[in-house]
Design goal:
Oligomer: heterodimer
Order of helices and strands of chain A: EEEEEEEEE
Distance between the termini of chain A: 29 Å
Helix content of chain B: under 10%
Structural class of chain A: mainly beta
Distance between the termini of chain B: 40 Å
Radius of gyration of chain A: 13 Å
Order of helices and strands of chain B: EEEEEEEEEE
Shape of chain A: globular
Strand content of chain A: over 45%
């Protein structure tokens, strides 16, 4: 069982706003940064959000991240067909002394 | 161009061993911590292990602790994962992944498939 909890699936229509949640606990999300990765089918994951809410260069501002307490969220505004992918949250866990992933959320654009 | 190329995967029986290698190019290997991340067929991502720039510190997921050993050769620009006492649940594609100060996983290799089956 993944340490961080994500919904297994999410969906939306083009142009909609979709949010994906990531729930953890004090040793991980509650004490450390959260990162989000996008994995398009058949490809390696790509960094979407770092340090809770920062976007790397080249990532559209349609993607945003937030964190509150022991939970984090990824929001995608203006949903596009090319956003159809798997999304993962990641954080360091102080108790485990390791990095922990969420189980991943498969986003479908209807 | 940053490149990470894994090798060493294959079919192994339960209880067997494999040594994965990752040859990197296009960046200064010795200044980056490095990771192994795996993905079982049709499943999510799982962090396996990390090693600091000098190799002085290593970290492991509980699922592999005591069975896997991460190491590196900075002069040869290579990362390794020695996997012993393999189990069926270790079956996955293993990715070599660079770490940067701002993010735990930066550039990913394409991965090497490890299949543990009798």
């Amino acid at each position: 069982q993944p340490v961080l909890t994500q919904p297994p699936s999410a969906s939306g229509t083009p142009g909609q706003r979709v949010t994906i949640s990531c729930s953890g606990s004090y040793p991980n999300i509650g004490s450390n940064y959260v990162f989000w990765y996008q994995q398009l089918p058949g490809t390696a994951p790509n960094l979407l959000i770092y340090k809770n809410n920062q976007r790397p260069s080249g990532i559209p501002d349609r993607f945003s991240g937030s964190k509150s307490g022991t939970s984090a969220s990824l929001a995608i505004n203006g949903l596009r067909s090319e956003d159809e992918a798997d999304y993962y949250c990641v954080a360091w866990d102080d108790s485990l002394s390791g990095k922990v992933f969420g189980g991943g959320t498969k986003l479908t654009v209807l | 161009e940053v490149q990470l190329m894994e090798s060493g995967g294959g079919l192994v029986k339960p209880g067997g061993s494999l040594r994965l290698s990752c040859k990197v190019s296009g960046f200064t290997f010795r200044i980056h911590s490095m990771n192994w991340v795996r993905q079982a067929p049709g499943k999510g991502l799982e962090w396996v292990s990390s090693i600091t720039r000098s190799g002085s510190e290593t970290f492991y997921a509980d699922s592999v602790k005591g069975r896997f050993t991460i190491s590196r050769d900075n002069s040869g620009n290579s990362l390794f994962l020695q996997m012993n006492n393999l189990r069926a649940e270790d079956t996955a594609v293993y990715h070599c992944v660079r770490e940067i100060p701002d993010a735990p996983f930066d550039y990913w290799g394409q991965g090497t498939l490890v299949t543990v089956s009798s």
